[in-house]
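Mods, move this if it's the wrong board.
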Amino acid sequence: MPPVETSVPIRRRLFIGAAAAALVATPLGLNTFARAQAGRTKPSDLPVEGRLPSLAGATGWINTAPLTPADLRGKVVLVQFWTYTCINWLRAHPYVRAWADKYKDRGLVVVGVHTPEFAFEKDIENVQRAVHDMKIGYPVAIDSDYAIWRAFENQYWPAFYVVDAQGRIRHHQFGEGGYEQSEAVIQRLLDEAGARGATYDAASVVGRGAEAAADWANLKSPENYVGHERTDNFSSPGGAAVGKSRNYTIPARLPLNHWALSGAWTMEDDLVALNAAEGRITYRFHARDLHLVMGSLGRPIRFRVKIDGAPPRADHGADIDAEGWGIVQEPRLHQLVRQSGSIGERTFEIEFADAGVRAYAFTFG
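Not the wrong board. Structure tokens:
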């Protein structure tokens, strides 16, 4: 199990490891799902962690009219904080989607609170596109001003809060994992609320593409932003020239988890922007999957990925072909590598045909 990444309110959180589990554990303890199946876990065993805060700070809603705590009274509610480019949320989302489908007729309401990390995630059209592409049918509150985030005193993507029919928060989960426990809590609170046809079998969950579970045993590359404010291990000779265009080069050797630029780029606090054609980003990584959050200025731009100097072939991700070709336009997470064989240190390279690309963060799985 990988270590937990230290987080601040605008920092994504990795899978919750053993050290952090103690901080977020409820009295349900271990083997929760088995206990729930046997009917021995009672709703009264769950602590009351507070009441469902107001949702009035939403700047908009998708898939519903505005909701209030009063509207949700009598329902079991799963409030989940997300932002659409977050790989940790993407890997948790198949579970949320499965729970929403399985329990909607038994009284569960899932409310997704979309709180943006990057500026482009405040654009309602980008969020609507993500909701459509990810087949999200449950209500989504647009929290672009962080009002709901602050009302919950939340700090993480993803974060789950399970609310009973009386409007009381009875369980939370920060980061990936804890799915059996969260589903068991949902089941028990539905039972408490008098749901008909409740069963204690687990929902069937299949994650595909970027939503597939990480290969934790081979994950040795942490998330890394490429903007100056939060990047690590930038290795182009001469360092970064923040806020102005500069021609960068790639060193002869990159150590593990170091990266570099080639070509004319401008490094800002939260992104790098390509100013001329044929710019490259190179990254030395160790993971099954490599993703890059990126977009362009309104027009499609062709790019090509290589691994260790060659086309990826069977190791290509969902957003490129076997020869490494792909197109970037709308800002989102792009899965560029999914290795199919043994995992080791590899050198990733992406070259863009034209100027206008904006890159934000690398994530791995």
